[in-house]
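Students often ask what a holo structure prediction actually looks like on paper. The answer is less mysterious than it sounds. You provide the chain, you provide the ligand, and the output is a string of discrete structure tokens encoding the 3D arrangement of the protein together with iron/sulfur cluster.
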Amino acid sequence: MEKLTGRVKDLARCYGAGTVGITTTQMLEGGPPSTDLSYVLPNARSAVSFAIPLDHNHIAPWFNKKNYQAHFQNNIHINVMASGISLELANYLKNKGFPSVPLSANTAYRTDTKNGIYDEKPPISHRYLAVRSGVGFFGLSGNVLTKTDGAAIILGSVVTEADLIPTEPIPAEENYCDDCRLCKAACASGFIDGEEKITITMGGVDFSYSKKHHHSRCDYVCGGFTGLHKSGKWSTWSPGRFPIPDNDDEFFPALLNSVGPYLKRPRPGLSLFNALMPGDRVQLTCGNCQLICHPDKDVRKKRFKLLIESGVIVQNPDGSLEAVTPEEAIKRLASMHPEKRTLYEKI
Ligand code: SF4
Ligand code: SF4
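The corresponding structure tokens follow.
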């Protein structure tokens, strides 16, 4: 098993992963339902977890709203790469005689919950496997942070019947999260509570992060239906300017009301494909809580400054997105034909 564990880690690293860790079923005992490895493989014994860094060169141009395509393309590429590494790892383990299941990096949901895929419950949580195996640690945001790349990573996992040799969590004193709350400040939806924390226990080890509000908050903003921060001074990459409610239960109706305009907006260029989304296509517009979190606090502060000082996004008639001052955005919207304007805001 020592040799096999080493080869599994080597394979993941050779194919592009950064940190690699291993958890076992015992190490996950007592964890949330999405740590139950038998959900995807009844006789599962362990799981491989790994992180692939996103390209940091594209993050500042994303926050200062100068380059939309570069990070979007990189995000797609790294997600596909994580799913691909999982598939290669699972094939390798199967060929060694150990039944194994690769997990998709994203957009895989349980179908046996009350609302099926709309509950957005993953078969297995990459995040829990990653923190339990020492690939990274939880930040206040609930994102997994790594020592080198912060939260700017994509996680992948494979579940296997092999008794791979486990790795230990990173000691709490090595977690760089200092509760700076810039992740919360960079979130226009209010998804991250930032004050109240929750603790989960896996295999006798406690892990804490901020309570989250209803996931429809993130769906509404990160899904691109709207993007203007309540201050009116900055936005995500979404040109939508529909109001962001205060209460969790107002988000789903707000989201439903914005579906029509969302579907009618031009969508040139790249798309993510997700069956949860109206029209099955989604443009990446946020991810701020993830991209802002760098191990160096000065970098975090710089990214936040770029975000809030780079204005708001408007959409041009050819579908391109442009950052303008908040005042200019109001003028551009006011000059639109009312039918066009309703694609972006309520009038
Ligand atoms: S942005 Fe700050 S508070 Fe949020 S996870 Fe990162 S270090 Fe922690
Ligand atoms: S992805 Fe965007 S909307 Fe969703 S929690 Fe993070 S910052 Fe908030």
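Residues 69-95 form the longest helix (27 residues).
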